[in-house]
Design goal:
Elements lengths: L1 H25 L3 E2 L2 H29 L7 H16 L4 E2 L2 H36 L1
Antiparallel strand pairs: 1-2
């Protein structure tokens, strides 16, 4: 149960960081107001958690040459679904979409790798204090 909660926190944290930083980098073509950031983060993280393994399984089964691009494909689909479902969230232009997919994928991948190190260090430090 703790592992599931930790994974959810990591997915939410990496999604929030990825979406927020991408909105800073891409500016007006990637509109994600603070009010929409919360809902966008939750939906994006949920879509990533569901779509990542599903797309991996499908590409591995039917198009194994594309397995390396699973993260980019699941990021695109999660962004697309989030864009459709969150009213204040919008991405305009093909170049913005391409840049957004790459930036969000890169940042969430790094955050998913680095957040556990930080969270586990904090947990270990808290246990030492007790």
């Amino acid at each position: 149960m703790v592992r599931l909660i930790l994974n959810a926190v990591i997915y939410l944290g990496s999604a929030a960081i990825g979406l927020f930083v991408t909105s800073l980098i891409l500016g007006d073509d990637f509109k994600l107001p603070i009010a929409a950031l919360l809902l966008g983060t939750v939906l994006f993280a949920l879509f990533q958690m569901i779509l990542g393994p599903f797309i991996f399984k499908m590409t591995h089964k039917y198009a194994s040459a594309l397995t390396g691009g699973v993260g980019l494909v699941s990021t695109f689909v999660a962004l697309l679904l989030t864009d459709i479902l969150v009213a204040d969230f919008s991405i305009t232009g093909i170049s913005t979409w391409l840049a957004a997919v790459v930036i969000v994928w890169l940042i969430t991948a790094l955050a998913t790798w680095l957040l556990p190190l930080f969270l586990l260090k904090e947990a270990a430090d808290n246990r030492k204090d007790k």
